[in-house]
Design goal:
- The chain has three helices and no strands.
- The longest helix is centred in the last third of the chain and has 39 residues, at 54-92.
- The model has no long low-confidence stretch (mean pLDDT 75).
- The protein has one domain (25-101).
- It is mainly α.
């Protein structure tokens, strides 16, 4: 098998780490909030190193903490909703109109 070369003529041997690989939209929806929190933390640390006043860093840190809290609350509500839906499907024996009302399909 011949090695593949990119447009630059350099051999392309790069692979994405397994934790960042996104195959479909559901993978993106699952990983994007976590990556956003990591990005906010990196931005905060970078800004903390450049700010000289104590109140400026406190205000910026509070804003970042608020955003991370909002993302966490969203993820918690989403997880509870998914858990509730899966329990309802389990209790009703499946999905669809006939399984929800207890009748069998004709």
């Amino acid at each position: 098998m011949r090695p593949s070369y990119g447009a630059t003529g350099i051999k392309d041997t790069s692979t994405a780490p397994g934790g960042v690989e996104i195959r479909d939209l559901d993978d993106l929806k699952t990983k994007l909030p976590g990556l956003t929190v990591i990005g906010l933390a990196v931005i905060f640390l970078g800004t903390a190193l450049t700010l000289s006043s104590g109140t400026g860093i406190l205000e910026f840190g509070a804003a970042v903490a608020f955003l991370i809290g909002a993302i966490s609350a969203y993820l918690r509500v989403k997880h509870e909703e998914i858990s509730r839906i899966s329990v309802e499907k389990k209790n009703h024996g499946g999905s669809g109109l006939f399984s929800m009302i207890g009748n069998k399909a004709p």
